[in-house]
Amino acid sequence: MKFRERLTCSSPLYPHSCLSQFLKTKASSSSYTKSYFLQVDHHYDPENLSLLRFNSLWEDAFRHDSLLVFSTGRTLPMYKKLRKERPMLTPDVIITSVGTEIAYGKSIVTDDTWVDIMNHKWDRGIVEEETSKFPELTIQRECDQRPNKVSFFIDKSKAQEVTKELYQRLEKRGLEIKIIFSGGKALDVLPKGGGKGQALAYLLNKLKTEGKLPVNTLVCGDSGNDTELFTIPNVYGVMVSNSQEELLEWYEENAKDNAKIIHASERCVGGILEAIGHFKLGPNLSPRDVYGLLECKEDNVNPGREVIKFFLFYERWRRGEADNCEAYIACLKASCHPAGVFVHPSGAEKSLRDTIDELEKYHGDKKDKKFRVWTDQVLATQTTPGTWMVKLDKWEQTGNERKCCRTTVKFTSKENGGYVWENVQQTWSEEAEIKDDSNWII
Ligand code: GLC
Description:
The chain folds into three domains: 7-109 and 195-287, HAD superfamily/HAD-like (Rossmann fold); 121-191, Hypothetical Protein Ta0175, Chain: A, domain 2; 291-428, Nuclear Transport Factor 2, Chain: A (Roll), CATH 3.10.450.50. A hairpin with a 4-residue loop joins strand 5 (101-104) and strand 6 (109-110). Helices cover 28% and strands 27% of the residues. The strands form three sheets. Strands 6-5-4-3-2-1-11-12-13 form a nine-stranded mixed beta sheet, sandwiched between helices. A six-stranded mixed beta sheet has the order 15-14-19-18-17-16. It is built from eleven helices and 19 strands. By secondary structure, it is of the alpha+beta class. Helix 10 (326-334) packs antiparallel against helix 11 (352-359). Alpha-D-glucopyranose is lined by residues 14-15, 73-74, 98, 140, 144, 151, 182-183, 186, 188, 225. Alpha-D-glucopyranose (GLC) binds at residues 14-15, 73-74, 98, 140, 144, 151, 182-183, 186, 188, 225. One of its GO terms (molecular function) is sucrose-phosphate phosphatase activity. Residues 303-430 form the Sucrose-phosphatase C-terminal domain. Pathway: Glycan biosynthesis; sucrose biosynthesis; sucrose from D-fructose 6-phosphate and UDP-alpha-D-glucose: step 2/2.
């Protein structure tokens, strides 16, 4: 039986700053939780380079044994919208609406037990009635409201007083609620049992019951609604450099002496990579930052890495950045079985070696076109001794146009180390918005 070793929870997709995630890894005998958090930087990283660095690190070093959890203030529809705009990996668990909704896996299956917990001593109608009596509260957009999350904007100077008064009134009406102030202006009213911290505690407990408690958990956050994450016992935590005042104030008052929590010097997802290194939770050098990556080495121990490395090369090649790659290409070609086949998403079959040859003419064709490639959900399985199947989603983006293919690569291992590419098969992913065969190469 396999156990997840690490859990990474990132604070979500706060509109102006970030997306946070949990990262988990699996444990073999003892369980080990690690959580990381990833953020989308809307201000300083329009090309999402930090996110892309995190993505390839995650897929290379953590995906196989860790859990990635996104925990966001956003509602599920708003998270899905962001996912279409940014190169975000598929999390194992998605906690949305400030910890009032939990769902699992690629198909986003709702946790119904959590729904029941959220409805305990909660009545949205009463919350609406009582909050309407406060002129200081301005209701947020309809798309930011959920059954167990009533969200407002408020002037910072009024937040404390209104929170106190509202809390008492709702208590008198028989409700058990929680009020959270975030981002210097947002005020969320939630069920008392909700919130990101409670959702994480629930998740950890569920994993424990299933015998899969991660060995390490890293939580990441940037705003007031992330505060609770840092109060969960035994978790490592990182407040990214661009954290909001309310989170930093909370840290000064409550957690300054906790060596398991750091204030990173890097922004957003860069802060997560920094924390992974600081707490020694695993490798934190992204394959994107490894310049020697394209050297022709046969010492790779992992067929998943072969694929990640290939698609990094592919991105650089088409961006015109990979200039001296003759050795890598020759090595790649030599690693393709002479009878190896590539099944294009159109259904057309080609020789693998011919496909590599054809790539030569695409060098630099995507230069200055904001072309990026990333891999998601890379899973390598040994099917028989010496035979591996690597399954993944391969995404590519040119400007705002994105495509995604479900990709399967079969490898056999060479006697003297390294792997032989036996065949590659691609089909359009359900998530792909554009399924245009004509200019898809591999
Ligand atoms: C996100 C949500 C918003 C909420 C805020 C703080 O921005 O979209 O509704 O108030 O997080 O939790």
